[in-house]
Amino acid sequence: MRRLFAVTRSQGAAWDRMRPLEAQSAGWRAHADFMNALHKGGFVVIDEPLQDTSDTLLIIRAENAAEIRRASEHDARGIHQEATEGD
């Protein structure tokens, strides 16, 4: 049974707060396409930046945390930091 997980994702040392998202790295377009596909497939339910931080909150519908880790292996930027299972 699929459950909801809250996943926080922090930007790495290369993150430049002065640059827009699209200018952060050469792989940005591929990452955006990857995330859009996860949204379209219902895997990622919510993907929103956390105010006044460089962190992002994702709500993911998955069988378990291992499924989230497997999905992140296909994204060079990664989506898994810490998964917390919800009811």
Summarize the SSE layout with pairings:
Layout lengths: L2 E8 L17 H13 L3 E6 L5 E8 L2 H8 L9 E4 L2
Antiparallel strand pairs: 1-3, 1-4, 2-3
Description:
There is one protein chain. The chain is an alpha+beta fold. Helices cover 24% and strands 30% of the residues. The chain has helices at residues 28-40, 65-72, and strands at residues 3-10, 44-49, 55-62, 82-85. Strands 2-3-1-4 form a 4-stranded antiparallel beta sheet. Strand 2 (44-49) and strand 3 form a beta hairpin. The model has no long low-confidence stretch (mean pLDDT 82).
Task: Provide a quick synopsis of the model.
The protein has 87 residues and is of the alpha+beta class. The chain contains two helices and four strands, in the order βαββαβ. The chain has a single domain, classed as Dimeric alpha+beta barrel (Alpha-Beta Plaits).
Placed side by side, the strands forming the largest sheet appear as: 2-3-1-4
Can you count the helices?
2
Q: Supply Rg.
A: 13 Å
Runs in which pLDDT lies below 50 for 5 or more consecutive residues are: none
Task: Assign the CATH superfamily.
Answer: Dimeric alpha+beta barrel
**How much helical structure, as a percent, in the residues?**
10-25%
Shape: globular
Described by strand count, sense and barrel closure, the largest sheet is: 4 strands, antiparallel
Average pLDDT reading: 82
Percent of residues in beta strands? 25-35%
DSSP strand count:
4
Amino- and carboxy-terminal Cα gap: 11 Å
Structural class designation: alpha+beta
Output the CATH class name.
Alpha Beta
Order of helices and strands: EHEEHE
